[in-house]
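Pipeline run #58 for the internal structure catalog. This entry was flagged by the ingest filter as a single-chain record with no existing model, so it goes straight to prediction. Upstream metadata was stripped on purpose; only the residue string is passed forward. Reviewer on rotation: M.T. Logging verbosity set to normal.
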Amino acid sequence: MNIPTQLPPEIFRSYDIRGIVPSVLNENISYAVGLALGSCAQEQQQPTLVVGRDHRVSSAGLSHALCQGLLDAGINVIDIGQVPTPVLYFATYFFKTQSGVMVTGSHCAPEYNGLKMVLAGKSVADAAIQDLALRIKTQRFSRGQGHYQQKNGTEAYLSALLSRVAPLEKRKKIVIDAGHGMMGELAPRVFSRMNCEVLPLYCDIDSHFPHHHPDPSQPENLRDLIAAVALHQADLGIAFDGDGDRIGVVTSEGEIIWPDRLLAAYAQALLKEVPGATVIYDVKCTRHLGPWIESCGGKPLLWKTGHSHIKTKMQETAALLAGEMSGHLFFAHNWYGFDDALFAAVQLVNILAQQALTSHLFFQQIPSSVITPELKLPMSEETKFSFIEKFISKSVFEQGDKCVIDGLRVDYPDGFGLVRASNTSPYLILRFEGDTEAALTRIQTAFKKNLLALDATLNLPF
């Protein structure tokens, strides 16, 4: 294959490589990434990488090219085929490689694809991703001939997951909306084994995602799940994103439970077993989460958004649990610390099965406010980060506590506002919370004033 002489810089993002195929990301680039990543692996004495892929039309070709690049760099490849992303992460432990690559477009539109990478047990992110781009530009590669083999990691994953939960004594009725994504096969199998009545919704795997976008962080993508829960009088509705590392949840009464409140439930359960454990949450999460974790006997830690940032911080702090508002949830107690929506779903059903309340009444015990979902403001890849830098330096908030670890978050006694640049898509991401509608409106007005002062042409989503 050919090594490209020109690389689109926008595909080398903060915690993955991602772009439209084939106009921006193509098989030649994937091959070159394989050479570059394989060279890094050689330097870190990582002789073998596991490679998995999702079901997108372009994934098989990108995966083949990636594998060839790794092999030409002298790296051995274990190809586990078409799997959800958590299975790839698990396989790096099961096959004892510590390293792997997932070819996936995650929750993005069908024309997108990308690469999520782990090397020596750590996510390849930030400077390490930029180093891959530099290696390709300078053709600083190792050369050799690795060994290729195909193996099945899925059954071992299912066995490991199911070994950690017992079948439910009281049968639960659960609607599963896989969004035609990669959890469409595995999730129904797992919950059937747990003695659940499974009502599958869009569980046939289809790379065109014909019914709705496979992103459970957006309310419009949960409408069909809410309707199905009501129709079947189900105990719970569970949604997965395209590659199976993000979760969405709907209660028996059709209420969307955002992942920060899910994390509160997981933290409560964990801290009964491990008092004093550290729990990490990202800047998009409710301000109620920190005090809740403390009240349960834990140590809360606010951190940057991004699966690689969260996993790195978990390793640094020995945190046992973490979560993001986007639906990534990370379990290091009795699991491996990576983001796994199916493990999260299993744990939630297990928690609910241990008490008598309906899912709706159970979550009413966890503090909530008037809060928006993640709001998206389109902005080009070339300008979004510089815009945030200007916003941080020029905005004026007369009250509130500012946090700038990831964009600008301003916390008030009765709510918060946040604006940050997405690391995966051409958007700014905003979220707002208030104890009352009036508080929410006041905080949004303050942000609106500052945003429009910087660019009066913005079409704000609030």
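catalog note: The chain has a mean pLDDT of 96.
catalog note: The radius of gyration is 22 Å.
status: ready for reviewer M.T.
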